[in-house]
Amino acid sequence: MAVKKVEAVINGQTYTLTLNSATGKYEATITAPAKSSYNQTGHYYPVTVKATDDAGNVRTVDASDSSIGSSLQLKVKEKTAPVGTITYPTASAYIINNKPIFRFKITDDDSGVNPNTIGITIDSGSKITGSAIVKTAVSGGYECTYTPDTALSDGSHTIKIDASDNDGNAAVQKSVTFKIDTVPPALSIASPANGLVTNRAACTVTGTTNDTTSSPVKVTVKLNSGSAESVTVGSDGGFSKVLTLTEGSNTITIVATDSAGKSTTVTRTVKLDTSAPVIKSVTLTPNPVDAGKTFVISVEITD
């Protein structure tokens, strides 16, 4: 008898093999499945070979065959790496919490993300992996969070995230640089002095401000119940604002706010008094007075 037909079944598709007269073997060139075999049972696509002779006898072997089954396990690996995205913080963000919760996402639409490879690195420290990173399974991968055990210092920091899929493809490392700022800006008011009493309606507020981490600093000045007005701050941190006082007690509120949103407030109370004293009465006692003797002058004044 002679072999009439040889077929292979892979991933639900049937392929016909032809005899290679040079090798004496039945062969076919087949395009591998488009998806990785990692998520298949046993991490392989089972291959079934069926041979039929011209008498109609059929022999079938598959991956479960005790003799050659291992050679009928087609392992397919994807070549597309997973994708990482950092969702918090954003680039150049200012953060007032020195133990921020970092958030990022790793996805892979084929073999899937290997959770053991998910890592985060802070600045030049060691990569952090394992249970320190909270991983929540989502479609195609994981939503991840990590909170530093040790407070980060004020200033600039960079985080980097890494991961690979189950076929060993490494994602392109993603990074983001941000700033920690837990200290409000410095604010010093040179004038007016608190409690100043003046007869001049024009009052100039002068001062300096700065913030080591989050410059430039914005300054607003508010008089009494009016609106807070922005003031130009010079490169040296100096600023000034001319106000027009109202008669009586005035409250001046100066607020310096850094780029992280932290603020420092200074309040000054200034009294405007433009009314001269009123002399209501004068009494000289005794009057007339003897030469060389003393007398008392008594003056009644209101203000």
From TrEMBL:
<protein>
    <recommendedName>
        <fullName>Bacterial Ig-like domain-containing protein</fullName>
    </recommendedName>
</protein>
<dbReference type="InterPro" id="IPR044016">
    <property type="entry name" value="Big_13"/>
</dbReference>
<dbReference type="Pfam" id="PF09136">
    <property type="entry name" value="Glucodextran_B"/>
</dbReference>
<dbReference type="Pfam" id="PF19077">
    <property type="entry name" value="Big_13"/>
</dbReference>
<dbReference type="InterPro" id="IPR013783">
    <property type="entry name" value="Ig-like_fold"/>
</dbReference>
<feature type="domain" description="Bacterial Ig-like">
    <location>
        <begin position="98"/>
        <end position="182"/>
    </location>
</feature>
